[in-house]
């Protein structure tokens, strides 16, 4: 468990009750109520117990919102890393988009929309959503 080490804490128990193998929303609701009651009790205790304090803010002239410049060497060093990385990322996503519109990447580059039709198929006779991209279709009759 992320927060409690080897011990379970309410927040992670709630999460795993909803999305884990337990799949028990009623348990998650009860644990959520417990967590909410503890939170409200802590807030109420702090409000009544004098945790509220008076604070004063110090005002003055603002800086105008201008940020300081990085030194030239550091700025160009950062640019030399960020710009190639950004271009590489754009190329990867571009390849994904182009790959979705070709028959078989590298073997048959004929343009097609067959992949999207198969993924997002909607049919009234086979159920509303029967494509591969819709939930639960891997075990259905249309999985190939």
Q: Which secondary structure elements does this structure contain, and how are they paired or packed?
A:
Elements: H1 10-19, H2 25-48, H3 72-100, E1 102-104, E2 108-111, H4 114-119
Helix pairs in contact: 1-2
Describe the protein's architecture and organization:
The protein has 144 residues and is mostly helical. Among the domains are: 39 residues; 41 residues, no CATH class. It has a two-stranded antiparallel sheet with strand order 1-2. Helix 1 packs antiparallel against helix 2. The longest helix has 29 residues. It is flat. The C terminus is likely disordered.
Summarize the structure.
By secondary structure, this protein is mainly alpha-helical.
Keywords, separated by commas or semicolons:
single chain; 144 residues; mainly alpha; two-stranded antiparallel sheet; 4 helices; 5% strand; flat; disordered C terminus
Radius of gyration: 28 Å
Let me know the average pLDDT: 79
Beta-strand content estimate: under 5%
Low-pLDDT runs of 5+ residues are: 137-144
Number of helical regions:
4
Number of strands: 2
What is the first-to-last residue Cα distance? 38 Å
How helical, in percent, are the residues? 40-55%
Gross morphology is flat
Q: Topology as H/E string?
A: HHHEEH
Largest sheet: 2 strands, antiparallel
Strand order of the largest sheet: 1-2
Based on secondary structure, the structural category is mainly alpha
